[in-house]
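Recall the central idea of this unit: under ordinary conditions, the amino acid sequence of a chain determines the structure it adopts. In this exercise we apply that idea directly, starting from the sequence alone.
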Amino acid sequence: MSRRARRKRFSTEPVDATIESLSHDSRGVAHINDKAVFIDGALPDETVRFIYTLKKRDFAEGRLAEVINPSPKRIEPRCQYFGYCGGCSLQHISGSDQIQQKQQLLIEQLQRIGKVTPKQMLPVLNSPQWGYRSKARLTVRDVAGKGRVLVGFREKGTRYVADMVSCEVLDSTIASQLSNLSVLIGCLNIRTKIPQIEVAVGDNRSAMVFRNLEDMLDDDRNKLIVYGQQHAIDIYLQRHGPSNIELLHGNGELLNYTLPDFDITFWFKPIEFTQVNFDINRKMISRVVELLQPQPDDTILDLFCGIGNLTLPVARLAGSVVGVEGAESSVERAIDNAAWNKIDTVEFHRADLIRTLDKHDWAHRQYSKVLLDPSRAGAVEVLPWLATWQPQRIVYVSCNPSTLARDAGIIVNDHGYTLQSAGVMDMFPHTAHVESIAVFDKQ
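Accordingly, the structure predicted from this sequence is:
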């Protein structure tokens, strides 16, 4: 008998269930025969009908077929593509309920994974719910069956591109261009060789980076130039790696975003990492400074500093700040941004922060305060160095509550700190993404 024939099958008949809670990725959780079942689109306290899509020994997954008894918190999604497009997962819950769920998730993760509880929960930082996203990576596919090129996010749970002509969360400058981009790429000779477009909107200008797997003919290049002229968008080509982009249309000026409260303007290339939500980023920076309380006699270490998004505002008030980042291009941009903003109380270093730091002079100094803003993987590799740095306060910005909780347990239980406060920031409304912040003080 073949492996395919031996594969265990399960019924696709609808099954009823009562939803008990939400998972970390915002799926409804039910228990059937003592097994957890994760159902996309279902909410706590609802009775739903679902169809199994996966069965494992310890858990199962299902697709929502019908809501029999809806939750009072369920609302009508604003976007016509919700449930089909994979860009959002929470439009069926109000913004206030979304952020409440995220705050509760943070508390549960801290307690369950880190075995710690903050003394105080910080007030939630909210942002506009729509048109907030200033950066995105759009997938492009020439789909013969549709008779056109599709440009947008992927369908939920698949590798296919959603057939969409609008987006409620993208900045309007970009959201209004999805149909135009479809037509534009459909007219190119290499329309099957453009897999993605990276879009970025600054305070001063907008840009699109077209990933092209083959060299473009002059005719295609001219069409992109005309498009950029018509819509006032800088056009770049990325033929090879991310460090090799070619400006096709525009005056060469970098994009920027401003921090009026700190008299700082950040300049960046469209492919360089910046926060996607400028409004919440400004509020987050103000909160970081408020919690870190930089003083003229402080020496502060900022790890995973990027282009200096948090480093430079802190350096406006601190005696000296050391920023460390793994990406060389980000370090170069941070140094440039410090010079452009005439901030001379800061120094930047490049270092792989998941490897040993022994060879770096800055790692052997002491710091009064430490600022951490790592990727989703967290900062566990640098935590042993807290014994060397001896900071009195640590402020930790996180995009993953589970790794924050893990690291919080280490900071508190292994290094003798107290978790003073924690809270969430609504960086990505309508998604399961949880941005949070935590403050630790030496006991």
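Confidence is low (pLDDT under 50) at residues 1-7.
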